[in-house]
Amino acid sequence: MRSSNPVFSRRGFSRDNGYAGFNAAPQAGGPAVGTQANPYAQGGANPYAQNPYAQQDLQHGAPPQAPVSTGRMTMDDVVMRSAMTLGTVAVGAILAWALLPVTNTSFGLAIGSALIAFVLAMVQSFKRKASPALILGYAAFEGVFLGVISEMYNSRWSGAPFQAVLGTMAVSGATLLIYKAGWIRVTARYARIGMAIAIAFILVTAVNLLLVVFGVAENGGLRSMGPLGAIVGIIAIILGAFFLTLDFKQIEDGIAYGAPREEAWLAAFGLTMTLVWIYVEMLRLVAIFSGDD
Description:
By secondary structure, the chain is an all-alpha fold. The protein is built from nine helices and no strands. The chain has helices spanning about 20-25, 55-60, 75-100, 105-125, 130-155, 160-180, 190-215, 225-255, 265-290. Helix 7 packs antiparallel against helix 8 (about 225-255). The longest helix is centred in the last third of the chain and has 30 residues, at about 225-255. It is globular, with a radius of gyration of 20 Å. The N and C termini lie far apart (about 45 Å). The model is unreliable at about 1-35 and about 40-60 (pLDDT under 50).
């Protein structure tokens, strides 16, 4: 089972098409979270063998530390890459907002940017290794898309983008606190149930979009600007929080298993996609609750 977010195709920190947090375990001295070998071990070697504190950590019930060696992913690496990726999204959004007026042309440009970002995300998802160029390219085009639609929402619902940013920060911060407090345990069963709900949500949303396009469903159908649309938006935000827990688990396990440093780019990629998902849904939700003012 591999972790995912809106596109359901990010490889994460697995090297055997599995999810490192659910179905892979390091050799002796590593955290007992599965039954398979550590996907990062080279030639079956124990990545914790060089850590003189690994056995001591296990004896005291503490989680094992990542291998003390160069080239391994650390939390600093994840934070740095995430800052670069999210910063690229922010710069793209600010430039699009400042330079593109609210017109049909700019809306078309936003849709085109979203499609390019999706293609880049899919290409990265099928690559065995992280490509910083693809990830930053995705972030740039996603930023243009967000900048244009944010300006459009702001022109009708003044302040909606700012409120959506605050809402996104609140959801992500609360999810992190709940995850670190241990109130949510990311297990295989948790992931299977959550992913089943997420896939069902995507399929229903896709069918709704087709019905709207062909005129069968009016006023956006399930994605209307009324109470039903608000309920669907809240469900989407909850799913975004679910994706965040999978991202946090992958990052935590990647560090513990001694994932290569370049895997930090995948962590940044996943977090960015999830935060974009939450922001877009939060933007719609703010607009719904703001009414037609």
